[in-house]
Specification:
Length: about 300
Amino acid sequence: MTGSKAQTDIRGALRKGISQLRTADVSCFTLAAELLLLHVLGRDRTWVYSHPEEAISSADADRFFALICRRAAGEPTQHLTGKQEFWGLEFEVTPDVLIPRPETEHLIEVALDRLALRELRAGRKQTLTGEGLQIADIGTGSGCIAIALAKELPGATIHATDISPAALAVAQRNAARHSVADRIHFLESNLLDGVLHSQRSFDLIASNPPYIGRREAATLMREVRDHEPEIALYGGEEGYELYADLITQAAAHLKPGGLLVFELGHNSLPAVQPLLDVPTWTNVAVTNDLAGIPRVIAAERL
C-alpha cells in the first residue's frame, strides 16, 4: 500500500503510518512511524509535532509510505533509516552489523565504573581520562562499544576486532564520524586470534559476543531473525559456546589487574559464571539490566 498522490499533511501521514504498522502488529508502531517520517523529512521530532498541518510533497509521502510498507513486512526501522542511537551518539547501521541495543550501555557503565574503582584502589586521582590504557573490544560490529569508550576515555588506545570485514567497514565509518578513528585500531580477527600484542598487554577487554542459541531462532522477533547478521547473533546451538574461548584468550592477553567485561545472553549466566570461578580471576560481579536479567559480567585478572 502506498501513499495517495493527493497532498497530505504531517498529522495525516503520521496517523496513517501508525495505523498501518499497528495493523501489521509491529512493535513500538508509533515510534517506528515517527522515526521513518523524521527520516524522510529530515526534521526533528519537535519540528514535526509543532507543524502538524504542514503539507508533505507527494514524493515525500510516497517515500514515507514505501518505508512503512517495508517496516510492516519486518525490516527493522534502523535498517530503513540507516542509524541508531547508542550512548548518546548516532551510529550508522546496516544489515552487516548488529543493531546496538540500549542494554549494551550497561557494559559501558560497568567498564567505566570498574576502571574508576581500580584507580581509587591504586590511590590515583578519580578523573579518569584513560591515559595510557590499552583496551580491546572483541566483536566490535558497528563499533558502538569501542567508540563510546574512546569518547569517554580520550587518553586510551583501543583495538577493535571483528570476524566480518563488512562490519569493520561500518565501524571504521562510525569511528571517523565521531572523530576517534586515530585512536581505534581495527583488525579482522576471530576473537583475539589475530591480535599480535605480547601476552597480557591489555588493561580492559570488553565484548558483546554472539550469544543467542540457534535452537532459539524460531522464538526471535522476525526483525532480528530475518534481517540481522547471523554471525553476530548466534553463539552456537545453545548460545554460550563462544564464552569459554573468549575468557581463555582474555586471560592470556590481560595485564595483572586487567579487567574483562562482557555481555551475557538472557539465560547464559549459569553456564558462563563457573568459567570465571578459577584462580585466574577475582572480583567477579554480575550486573542486571533494567528488566532484572543478568546482563553484564566483569572480572579482574590476577
